[in-house]
Amino acid sequence: MTQPAPTPSYRLKIACADERDFLEHFAPKYVSSGIVVPSKNPRPVGTRVRVKIELRNGQVLVSGDAIVTSRAMPDATDRPGMTMRLTALHPESFKFELSPAASGAAARPTPPPPAAPPTSGATPLDDLFLLDDEPAEAAPDARPADAEPGIAPSPTPIPDRGRVAIGAMRRGPPEPDVATPPAGPLEAAPEKTPRAAEGHRFVIWIALALAIVGGIATTVALRAPRARVGAAAEAKDAARVAEELRLADSRLMEGRLAGAGGDTALDHLLAARAVAPEDPRVTSRLRLLADKFEQLGERALARRNLGEAAVHYQVALRADPGREGIRRKLAEIAASTESGTPSR
Length: 344
Description:
Distance between the termini: 56 Å
Number of strands: 7
Largest sheet: 7 strands, mixed
Order of helices and strands: EHEEEEHEEHHHHHH
Number of helices: 8
Shape: extended
Radius of gyration: 31 Å
Strand content: 5-15%
């Protein structure tokens, strides 16, 4: 049987302090105009998705179903994304009226994305910041409905095999079949009385069992301290990454994206990447920062401000070193500066 297609899911963070702030400043806009979500791969109009919205402190306030009502493709704008309209709230979500008329907001067409922020000084992102870049939730029968995007559900305990294996370790090696004499060269050994042969085989099995148990005990004793040290180190690294992500999200909400001082969103994300280079929570945030500063560099380059463009491109390259296009643009700017010829 064909499995149902996974439902796209988006987890967003807003610069909102509490429920009252959400009702006054965010809910009317989301109900009347929709939720504008930045994305380099916007979904087609009509796609049904799941949305979770976090407050500034990390609390998930809104959880519900939505439908894509419009989208802006990357080849048509420097701020690609899509607009979603909430259609239903999940039981665990903060409740508010989804009807524009009932909420007191007049229904109107979805507005275009807001104007770009100024390029000088701190550059705050939009009020919505995409934390998980389009993770797909599995079908309902493959993972719990309340599982967070990008977080695997708790492993299912193995019922029988674990108990059988543990029971076998406790029982030790199987008892010998003393009624059947061993085959092969032992048949040519000097004859022994049945009682003596049985006792001899029993002693051999006991010695073999003791050797096996002793070897297992020695291996476990040698590996146990290493396992404890490794687990402690992993727990310490996980705690460090979580703290750096918390600080990075806080600086993002404050508009402190990059700069001097060592306490910007970029600084904390780079520190997290040094500990966990493959953590998707870290890499997704760094990609978004790189996108933002690459856009700022393009705007500065269009104004022929080569110095400002170079600064923005360098920040984008720190966030995502694999962007070869930015390296080429920096080389062109350096060549133009040396020759005195303005870059295009």
